[in-house]
Design brief:
Blueprint (H helix, E strand, L loop, with lengths): L1 E5 L3 H10 L5 E6 L4 E3 L6 E4 L1 H6 L3 E4 L6 H9 L7 H8 L1 H11 L6 E4 L2 H11 L3 E5 L9 E4 L5 H13 L7 E5 L5 E9 L5 E3 L3 E6 L2 E7 L4 H17 L4 E10 L2 E8 L9 H4 L4 H9 L13 E7 L13 E4 L9 E8 L3 H14 L8 H9 L1
Parallel strand pairs: 1-2, 1-5
Antiparallel strand pairs: 2-3, 3-4, 6-9, 7-8, 7-9, 10-11, 10-12, 10-14, 12-13, 13-16, 14-15, 16-18, 17-18
Helix pairs in contact: 1-10, 4-5, 5-8, 11-12
Bound molecules: adenosine monophosphate.
Adenosine monophosphate binds next to strand 7 and strand 15.
Length: 377
């Protein structure tokens, strides 16, 4: 079966690696160049969207910031899963918030801002502190403003006003109540076309400067897992979703609140490559290709450490972990690979992370020690 992935980054690459044993042939459509490329070598396989669609059996996506006309063309083919509506939802916080409300899941109170009067209304409705997020093109904490006190109000408005003036007409800003969360967790789940679902255990995420640093899959909190799974089902059903869907939550004193969703395989699910019976990449392909879903059981406590920008990775750490390079040139803030560490128990995982923390530069890998400390709590 031939699967076309919209986007030609590391997620398409890892789908190709996971799909090969199932005889699933992955090609990647680079939305920037309009070329279809091999997801590993980036060799050009074809030009133009129409021929890419024509030669695919199934179309899916590895990111959500895709032009609406590209999504519409894929949707028209009848081959696109999870489909244009789901991708648009993940790429536009305004639509996302409406879907979360429709699904009836707990999420931060919000107000949509286009004009100064909306801004003033947001402040009187939600109070302070507030976080403002661009509706489109927001990822890894980009396109955000934080308002801590009344003193910040005027300066923030001028910045938001300038941002909106320079943006296209579809852009707006979402104001959200600032949630004083204890920690951030995410759920990666998969839904088949027949409505079957399978979900991985919750992952705890540590971010540095808005970018995911470490994900830890070692928790067995059944009450939280249950809350997350119910919300997954509500959202996935509301979108009639097919494929892997990631949901990021705030954990506020044992109650989960959805922060955002990603209609695709997700960085906080990379641990499943070594830590689960069937990884998220294979499960996504199974779902969109109409194959039975795979077992999402965690085989061992696992942590995933992102490699971001220029990093030194001593070879000797390979005796304790798996390296996944993306074959990408390092640039500040760019994810170029990740490290998966599995261990027989939570305590052993903490030990391994402590040892890794001693081999890795703490400015390049800022959250490894914190992850080890969290495992010991
Ligand atoms: P996002 O791009 O929405 O995931 O936001 C990036 C980061 O900002 C999140 O990982 C949180 O740490 C923080 N954040 C986002 N929304 C809120 C909120 N409503 N309250 C507090 N922190 C937030």
């Amino acid at each position: 079966m031939k699967v076309l992935v919209l986007g030609a980054g590391q997620l398409a690459r890892m789908m190709a690696l996971a799909g090969a044993p199932l005889n699933l042939h992955i090609s990647a459509y680079d939305v920037n160049t309009g070329n279809t490329v091999h997801p590993l070598t980036h060799e050009i396989l074809g030009k133009g969207l129409a021929s890419a669609i024509e030669s695919a059996d199934i179309i899916t996506a590895e990111f959500e910031h895709i032009a609406p006309d590209v999504l519409a063309q894929c949707q028209e083919s009848g081959k696109f899963l999870p489909g244009a509506e789901a991708i648009l939802t993940g790429g536009d916080r305004r639509i996302e918030k409406a879907v979360l409300d429709k699904a009836g899941v707990n999420n931060a109170p919000y107000h949509v801002i286009n004009l100064r009067e909306d801004y003033d209304a947001a402040i009187s409705k939600l109070g302070l502190p507030l976080i403002l997020k661009s509706a489109l093109d927001g990822y890894d904490g980009k396109g955000q403003w934080r308002i801590k006190s009344a003193e910040d109000l005027e300066a923030t408005w001028y910045s938001v006003e300038a941002f909106l003036a320079g943006a296209d007409d579809r852009q707006c800003v979402i104001a959200e109540t600032f949630i004083p969360f204890d920690r951030e967790v995410s759920l990666i789940g998969v839904r088949g076309a027949n409505g079957d679902t399978a979900m991985y255990p919750l992952t705890e995420n540590i971010h540095t400067d808005g970018i995911l640093s470490v994900s830890i899959a070692a928790d067995d909190n059944h009450a939280l897992q249950q809350q997350a799974e119910l919300m997954f089902k509500a959202i996935a059903d509301a979108l009639d979703y097919v494929g892997v869907l990631a949901i990021e939550f705030f954990d506020v004193d044992g109650t989960l609140m959805v922060n955002e969703i990603a209609p695709r395989v997700h960085n906080s699910g990379h641990w499943t490559q070594q830590g689960a019976w069937v990884c998220q990449f294979e499960n996504h392909l199974r779902a969109v290709c109409g194959l039975p879903l795979g077992d999402t059981t965690r085989v061992a406590p696992t942590a995933m450490i992102n490699m971001v920008g220029h990093v030194n990775v001593p070879q000797e750490i390979m005796s304790d972990c798996h390296l996944h390079w993306y074959d990408k040139a390092p640039r500040p803030g760019r994810k170029i690979g990740h490290i998966n560490v599995t261990a027989a128990s939570r305590e052993k995982l903490a030990e391994k992370l402590t040892k890794l923390g001693q081999s890795l530069d703490s400015t390049e890998f800022p959250a490894v020690k914190e992850a080890a400390d969290r495992l010991r709590c």
